[in-house]
Amino acid sequence: MKSTAGYTLLEMLMVLVLFSMIAGIAVPRLTTVYSSMKWSMEKDDVLKRISGLGRAARNAGRGFALSRYPVETEGNRSTSRTTGANDDLSLQKTGKARKIPLDLPEGWRLKAEPPIYYTGEGVCLGGKLTIMYDRIRIEAILRPPFGRIEFSQERALDGD
How far is residue 146's CA from residue 158's CA, in Å, rounded to a whole number? Predict the structure, then answer.
């Protein structure tokens, strides 16, 4: 008598082909979801760090001006130094830029024209801020006195 328990080779190959097709569809979508989640988490982190600049100025007991981040210095190294005048005019007196308490993830850039000033009491005097990452540009407004961020526009950059 012949046993009928088990699967044939053809049935196992069909299951393998179906799993391969599902994986071929799902894996590229998972990488897209992962990069989207990474972008979203980094963006939230950057916004939280920018919102905390007033508190950092108050804790340090000195103000600063945010004009761009990072700033290119001698030797093409990026630093977190400001390029605008400070509220206590130390930049104009010494010719040195004061280090700002901001550390952003790799690839993120900020630009504020005119500079956004933070006083030693932690007050943000407000201004327009452009936040850039890869091919995305976010236009934001920092509202005084707490530096609350309001978005005006988020868009992908065209070819440079």
Answer: 33
**Rounded distance between C-alpha atoms, residue 64 and residue 100, angstroms:** 7
Give the tens place of pLDDT for each residue, 70-91: 865 545 444 444 444 333 333 3
Question: Could you give the CA distance from residue 7 to residue 116 in angstroms, rounded to a whole number?
Answer: 71
Within its chain, how far is the Cα of 15 from the centroid?
A: 43
Please state whether the predicted TM-score (pTM) of the whole model is above 0.70: no
Please state, as a whole number, how many other Cβ atoms lie within 10 Å of the Cβ of residue 63: 22
DSSP 81: B
Alpha-carbon gap, residue 145 to 153, rounded angstroms: 22
Question: Would you say how long the chain is, in residues?
Answer: 160
